Amino acid sequence: MSDAPAHHVFCLCAPSGEKEAKKAVLPEVLCVLQVCLEGKLTEQTVKHELSRGRRSAGDLIPWVISQEFAQEDFPSLSGARIVRIATHPDYQGKGYGLLALKLLQDFYEGKFYLNDDPSTVNMDPVVYNDEEMVVDDAMEEKLESQASLPALFPPLNKIKPDILDYMGVSYGLSEELLRFWKKAQFKPVHLSYVPNQLTGEHSCIMLKQLTGKTTSSNWLSSFVTDFCWKTIETILWLNRLEAGLALSLVSNESNPGEYQELSKLEILKHLDEESLLNLKEYCSTSGYGFPVKGNVSVLSKFYFTHRLRDVNLSKNEEMFLMSYGILRKSFEAVAHDFGMPLDTVKSEFMTGFKKIASCVVQICGDLVT
Description:
This protein is an alpha+beta fold. It folds into two domains: 7-114 and 160-238, Gcn5-related N-acetyltransferase (GNAT) (Aminopeptidase, 3-Layer(aba) Sandwich), CATH 3.40.630.30; 264-364, no CATH class. It is built from 14 helices and six strands. It has helices spanning 18-22, 43-51, 60-68, 96-108, 130-133, 175-183, 219-234, 243-250, 264-270, 273-284, 293-304, 315-326, 331-338, 342-364; strands spanning 7-13, 29-39, 78-87, 166-172, 187-191, 203-209. It has a six-stranded mixed β-sheet, sandwiched between helices. Helix 11 crosses helix 12 (315-326). The longest helix has 23 residues, at 342-364. The chain starts with 6 loop residues before the first strand and ends in a 5-residue tail after the last helix.
């Protein structure tokens, strides 16, 4: 930490009573966050490094995102990458981690800082003169109170923050960690295709846009839409990804209506006139039979990239659509995975798929005659 001035540690502490305050006792630490400030890279630096096919040390998220989405302006944004978060063993599972993240967000959005407070603490590291601290004889050294040293735990309203554009995190993907970060309203934007050789986990980057300097544009939603499409297209390469984890990765429970709605032009890029007529007949005829598998794959991608606003599927319908339409498992394998009767799996899948097909046919309107 001494050699990394961009790293900061934040502690969520238990409230201290009057006795503890008088005795100057350190409060009990409930949760600790290690944060690394990233970004603020110049356009010239980004172009120079990317043209040489490499990236400088540090600034993990800016470099990865700029390469993933070909966005040379993203590294100019200011962000904080959460390196570690640790909660006291006695208080785990009680929401202190989420509370610490929310308070950290409020801090970097400037909600704690008091502009008229004369006792503001600077976040820049304190530098001491080594020559003044050298003692010739340690036996003759006199230990005195260092009144000039900064407080160990200054409150957030005493610290002037950097107003940031986003907070981010990079971690090895697992269902438990994904659930935690999504509960904190972080959104996935990158997933490595090659798993870590030691842990076997795929590296996942998630971001949360703050009300910083770029509030005029909601740039994160376009990243998430692009990420969902890429993940759906390449999900078969990720052998360790089960249907439940894959569904959680591309689902968007917090803001289901924030993405751009599917247009007729986009539908026609993926479905020809014959396919659309097939879908219309499937929706209007009760005994039509089973839908064409190619149509199932295309419509599944439309649904899981959040382009169909008025379609609401049950959890089972989503799971079966993911398993059959995206992961391309047989219905027998899906029934075995979920321990359900084969007829029930097929019936619920057909119900969910008909909702999606009806929406697509309705968007196309007079194109389907």
